[in-house]
Input
Amino acid sequence: MTSASITSLIAMGILLMISIAILTWPWMRMASGSGKTLMGGIVLLAMASSLGLYASFGSFGLPDRPLHLRVDELAEAQEKQANAQGENRAALQAALQAAAENPDDIEAQFRLADAAAVAGDSDIEINTLKAILRQTGNPLLKAMIGEALTRQADGIVTTRALAWIEDGLADAPQDWRGRYLKGLYLSQSGDDFGALAIWSPLAEDLKGSEIFPAVATVITDAANRVGVDPDDYLPEALPFAGEQPSQADIATMVDNLEEELFDAPIPDNRERWVMLVRSLINLNESARRDRAIAHYLENMPGEDADVPVLLSFIELLLPLDDLPPQMPAILSPLLDKARALGPDNHGVLFFSGLHARSKGDRQSVEVYWRKLLSKLDPDNPLSALLESELNK
Output
């Protein structure tokens, strides 16, 4: 038996002695001399038996495990945890070096942010995401910064995190991450009805995605807290709310959403079209993805409200942290429509230049990015990045 086991056994004996003394004190006071002796013997026998049983079978934290195995098992768990932390720190150091060697490589910067998140280094993660935001101007990064700040605060959406989240939603109101976190802030502040008002349409938009179960779970919890029926806030025909749907379930929901949207008026379903395209990308259904985008381009009203939707399509096709080796063919007509409706939109101009650069069309790159530069403040970090690209 190890010294730690002996210490644990002594502690258990003391606890037993105190407990038995408290329980038997009234009877000990009333008993005669011989009775006290008999009762004292019974108490000692009970204590010895209890300690013997505990030494053989007991464990405070591990039921049905011998006491002498606790120290070795805890040491092994601590060693595994230390090894995992060491591996995560090594991966973070490698990512830091790669990012330092390639400061203009957005992909390397994203890998650094991911490695920092895994290693639990919130400061590096947040600073890296801010640097990427300065380089790209992508508003979706603001909610990612808010999420990192929330993780840093042990899951609490602080006012500092909320400022980033709301700033991001002002530029990208359809961002699922920002909407989820805004609802979480309201819920944590005691406004579950306010959270449900945000999460319910979000659940509708995310129906069929891998993120839906998490949203369904928080909706169910919030609804139960305020005494309302969760089904009133969840999409219909989803009996597995709160559970992880199978791939077949997801495919069926996407099929139903696609069929519904192709027969519905676009102005009433703009956000759901973004959800459909995102889901088809997640399912690797490139042909159906292009068909859905083409349908939207052909049938949209052509209003200002369509520009954010087109820009969302573009961002889904060209994720800055994982640009495809070959640009999708649907991107050309998509960018044409976006430029026609939003010729001065910063995002449209940026992605138009990026698309032109992928085709080796330096003249068009000059046109789009010079125009974008003329609209940016001189101190905007994106200005320096564009100048550097144009001067290559």
In short: Residues 277 and 289 are 6 Å apart (CA to CA). The two ends are 71 Å apart (CA to CA).
